[in-house]
Amino acid sequence: MQPLISVIVPSYGSEEYLPRSLSSLLAARAKVGAGKVEIIVGVDPKEGHHDLEVATELLKGEEGAFAYLHDHRLGLPLARLDGAKRAKGQYICSLDSDDYVEPSYFEVLVPLLEKERPDVVGFSFNYELEGKKRSYPFASSFEGDGERMLKAMFTDIGTRGFIWAKCWRKDLFLAYDGPLYSFLEDVTLNAILLPKAKKAIAIRDRLLVYQESNPSSLTTRKDPERFYKHVRALAAIRAYYDLHGMEKEKKILVARRWRHALSLLYAKKRAKKDGMGRDERKKAARLFRAAMDLRRPLFESAPDFEEVYRAFPFFSSSEE
Q: What is the pTM of this model?
């Protein structure tokens, strides 16, 4: 029997978190039957770490659940796509290896996907900070097309840009042809795939627990380039829309520049604290202004625009 859902769990030096992550998936899967859900752990090699051995032991004897080792480090975006290519499920969900799912995860998603057959489902989440679980205070509930979810995602309140807070139709997920950045890769994937979705559903259910205090995660570790990387991701979205003549989506992106600017204030503060220099901050600010200016294509107005375009598949890109 073909599984309905395949859950991709990329792992890189995460053996400390894998037992909780995979145990939560197995417990949630037991409520709907193992045949409905496939679990795939894709491990990036890291010297001195044993993610593959830990995952293999945890999944031993479990139907439709396996771990495998990448030949080299892929990074999150490519690891998710590589796992999706191996998946047998009709839908792709993603779980970061340091997060875990609520017991109701599949009990909610399976009947919804079977009945509605959407292109994408978005859901809310809880988060864990310093060992204490809290509820994310905002959530959206609606049914529409991908454009509606795109608008909600760029507003970034009720519908967030996280990949792990959505479940995608597999063929749509594999249609991703955008930038391959490691930082803010969730937002770029959403921004490129959502316009292709004809049926999008958002639900208020909090189905996952996000680990906010992992010191080794991209969002928490020290990074003086954080501000520039954030701007670069937005510029790459704008560049993709330019390349594909997506005028309506460009207007949606730019209409919410106030929300992007709000997020960037925090990123700028963090980057400055981490050692980002004044010239680098000015460079990022110029790129942001260019990305939000619809009067001319980004490649004509953006400083260092080649670096933005270099992350697309038609450039030889390297993982950060």
A: 0.90
